[in-house]
Specification:
With 319 residues, the chain is mainly alpha-helical. The chain contains 16 helices and no strands. The protein is flat.
Length: 319
């Protein structure tokens, strides 16, 4: 009789103890959870909740019926895109521009950071940092406007120099073959300084005793860069490379759209601009949502794949 009355009380005590142990770490660090709560709330409200609208990619969206009331059509919009005349051109241009940007734009900030790290004249170093950081603060509209001005076939300074050496003026922004190069090189110019900051921060954490020991052993500056600096910042390089791979097909449409015209459309038409034309100009919301979703899935697959490969080969990964 005594056991039957005591046992529930013991279970209740154990349950309270289990709950207290579960919540203790949270209560003990409540300040940290309070600090991060606005960020979590931001992502929930502005990044995750709007994702319910993805369903219109599988519906024939009718504005008067709303998202929930529009009829389901399955994968009809995806099939339409896959059989579209523009499909392979969009894939080729988007992937080509992404790979070109990665191949040229990714190593430049690393090289710049390694070079600036070796500069001992502080005033010269600050001067170089200032002129390389400054383009980051220019808007895309200003950058494209500068390109149009400098590359003008009649008044542009570039064509002026070409003319001085006897060459014929080139209409760079109307030639399809020049589009990718102009896009990538202007992007490198605008972002290389700002992107090098994270590598400079990583280089600042390299143990100076390693360099002292290497100097004693007679290592040259290039050998110290190759065998000390680069291996030390390799985890940072790998993490940023994975992030860049994850957005290789996520090229923003603003700059491309500003540089785009009917003459260079053959190489400048990418998925982002096609989504803009379909969704905003032609009001085909479901079709454009399906294309955007397809693009995001490809980026997600690339990110996960490269992350897993990096995890197995270098033990450095995002998760």
């Amino acid at each position: 009789m005594a056991n039957t009355t005591v046992q529930p009380a013991v279970n209740a005590v154990h349950e309270k103890k289990r709950i207290r142990q579960k919540w203790n770490p949270i209560l003990r660090n409540w300040q940290l959870y309070l600090l991060i709560s606005p960020v979590v709330a931001y992502y929930i409200v502005f990044q995750y909740l709007p994702m319910y609208g993805i369903q219109i990619a599988f519906k024939d969206f009718i504005a008067t019926k709303g998202i929930w009331g529009s009829p389901w059509v399955g994968f009809e919009h995806f099939e339409r895109f896959f059989h579209s005349y523009y499909f392979w051109r969009l894939i080729k241009n988007t992937l080509g521009l992404g790979l070109y940007s990665l191949a040229v734009g990714f190593p430049v900030p690393i090289i710049l950071a390694l070079l600036m790290n070796e500069v001992r004249a502080e005033k010269f170093k600050k001067f170089v940092q200032t002129i390389t950081y400054a383009p980051h603060f220019l808007s895309t509209v200003v950058v494209v406007g500068m390109m149009m001005m400098f590359l003008s076939p009649r008044y542009g300074i570039i064509n002026h120099f070409i003319g001085m050496f006897g060459g014929n003026p080139i209409n760079f922004l109307s030639e399809p073959s020049w589009f990718k190069t102009l896009f990538v090189m202007s992007d490198v110019w605008q972002t290389m300084g700002w992107s090098s900051i994270i590598y400079l921060a990583a280089l600042a954490g390299v143990d100076s005793q390693l360099h002292e020991a290497a100097r004693v052993d007679g290592a040259t500056r290039l050998q110290r860069i190759r065998h000390i600096n680069i291996p030390s910042i390799m985890p940072t390089i790998i993490i940023l490379f994975i992030l860049n791979i994850g957005s290789i097909m996520g090229i923003g449409f603003e700059k491309v759209l500003l540089m785009q015209n009917t003459l260079n459309l053959e190489t400048s038409d990418i998925i982002s601009t096609y989504v803009y034309r379909s969704g905003i100009q032609d009001a085909e919301y479901s079709f454009s949502a399906a294309i955007g979703l397809f693009n995001s899935i490809i980026n997600f697959i690339l990110l996960v794949t490269v992350n897993q490969i990096s995890k197995r080969m270098s033990e450095t990964s995002l998760w």
